């Protein structure tokens, strides 16, 4: 212990030193023992005066019980931090799952800092996978999806239905995470507007540009290769923001918050997301989605988040079974084609599991479309 600390203890009356003839201060064996006890109590969260009261007076059991609760909380929190550090060191999955759930944007930055480019980082996050063998995983993943037109559930009719519920006449439209443009092309054919389609995947954008050229009547469509998390537009630019199956990549709540600034007053946001159909999700379903989409919510929770983010919900509806079929049927065919040469691929196995899981449990969850208006200033 430092000299200053000893003198301070003395000043508070915790110990009683005395000055020897040579000027040194002498402490008794009892003082030394008291110091040890005081230090332990102090580390447990008691102030020095509370330490003194505890040693010199009748025990204040309420005070100690309160400190005990706090101490238990601190230990639990330290345990979590320890667990996190351990899984970070060994690159285990729980760290990725925790980070995706609790700090999605910071997690993306962290992946970038580890040397993953934006597209890889997104795909890791997308699939909430640990990064072991990620090169192989990425290659397989791209090989499987490159040929598919849809990269998520959706249908022509559902896009048109959502569009019919948009209450304004949009002149400026942004399609975020447009992929190969399944929805962009429908918007282009049905709106008299300037449409900007943004995605991080260059080849998908090239595909979209070619598709647009082959359409008969269309609005103007610009494509931009960029991230939904750093959108290069001025505030209040768009009357309509469209995002099918993509808001979850940065987290729906975060998307609601940050895209709002880009909408004009009473501008409209249309997005689709995977939600639980019921409050009482079975353990099997909860466990599966906890690792595949940790931020998945019930429909009611998403509705609440919409209103808390300053939007008015105009309509929402469940995408029909054909939306899933449009995604899973071509995917299943692709899997069947690739399986003989890729039997050991983790990416392929994950997708097979996902389809099997859907077939067994699809009544518990839904792809849902939300049409919301930017009403309140927050
Ligand atoms: C599930 S797909 C949906 C694609 C399309 N909207 C559809 O319904 O077919 C998600 C899309 O988001 C894109 N994406 C992923 N991360 C992104 C990001 N940070 N910014 C923009 N697009 C992103 C992916 O490349 C992919 O095209």
From TrEMBL:
Gene3D superfamilies per the record?
1.10.1660.10, Vaccinia Virus protein VP39
Q: What is this protein called?
A: MerR family transcriptional regulator
Its pathway is: Lipid metabolism; Phospholipid metabolism
Q: Which UniProt keywords apply?
A: Methyltransferase, Transferase
HTH merR-type domain mapped to chain residues: 1-57
Q: Lineage in the entry? A: Bacteria, Pseudomonadati, Pseudomonadota, Gammaproteobacteria, Alteromonadales
InterPro entries, per the entry: DNA-bd_dom_put_sf (IPR009061), MerR-type_HTH_dom (IPR000551), Methyltransf_11 (IPR013216), SAM-dependent_MTases_sf (IPR029063)
Q: Which GO terms describe its molecular function?
A: DNA binding; S-adenosylmethionine-dependent methyltransferase activity
What GO biological process term is on the record, naming one? regulation of DNA-templated transcription
Q: Pfam families given for it?
A: MerR_1 (PF13411), Methyltransf_11 (PF08241)
């Amino acid at each position: 212990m430092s000299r200053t600390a000893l003198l301070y203890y003395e000043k508070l009356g915790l110990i009683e030193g005395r000055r020897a003839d040579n000027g040194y201060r002498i402490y008794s064996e009892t003082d030394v023992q008291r110091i040890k006890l005081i230090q332990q109590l102090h580390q447990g969260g008691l102030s020095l005066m509370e330490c003194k009261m505890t040693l010199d007076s009748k025990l204040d059991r309420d005070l100690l019980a309160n400190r005990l609760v706090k101490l238990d909380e601190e230990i639990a929190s330290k345990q979590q931090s320890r667990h996190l550090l351990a899984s970070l060191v060994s690159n285990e999955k729980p760290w990725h799952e925790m980070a995706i759930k609790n700090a999605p944007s910071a997690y993306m930055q962290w992946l970038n800092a580890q040397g993953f480019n934006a597209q890889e980082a997104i795909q890791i996050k997308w699939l909430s996978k640990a990064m072991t063998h990620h090169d192989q995983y990425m290659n397989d993943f791209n090989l499987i999806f490159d040929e598919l037109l849809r990269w998520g559930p959706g249908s022509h009719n559902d896009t048109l239905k959502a569009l019919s519920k948009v209450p304004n006449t949009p002149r400026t439209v942004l399609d975020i995470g447009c992929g190969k443009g399944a929805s962009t092309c429908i918007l282009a054919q049905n709106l008299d507007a300037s449409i900007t389609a943004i995605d991080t995947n260059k080849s998908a954008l090239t595909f979209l540009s070619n598709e647009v050229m082959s359409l008969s009547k269309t609005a103007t469509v610009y494509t931009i290769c960029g991230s939904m998390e750093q959108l290069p537009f001025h505030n209040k630019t768009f009357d309509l923001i469209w995002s099918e199956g993509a808001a979850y990549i940065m987290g729906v709540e975060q998307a609601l918050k940050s895209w709002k600034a880009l909408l004009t007053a009473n501008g409209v946001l249309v997005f689709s997301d995977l939600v639980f159909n019921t409050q009482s999700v079975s353990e099997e379903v909860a466990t599966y989605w906890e690792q595949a989409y940790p931020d998945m919510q019930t429909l009611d929770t998403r509705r609440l988040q919409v209103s808390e983010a300053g939007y008015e919900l105009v309509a929402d509806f469940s995408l029909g079974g054909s939306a899933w079929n449009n995604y899973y049927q071509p995917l299943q065919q692709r899997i069947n084609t690739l399986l003989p040469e890729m039997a050991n691929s983790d990416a392929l196995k994950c997708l097979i599991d996902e389809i099997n899981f859907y077939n067994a449990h699809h009544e518990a969850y839904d792809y849902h479309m939300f049409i919301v208006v930017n009403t309140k200033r927050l």
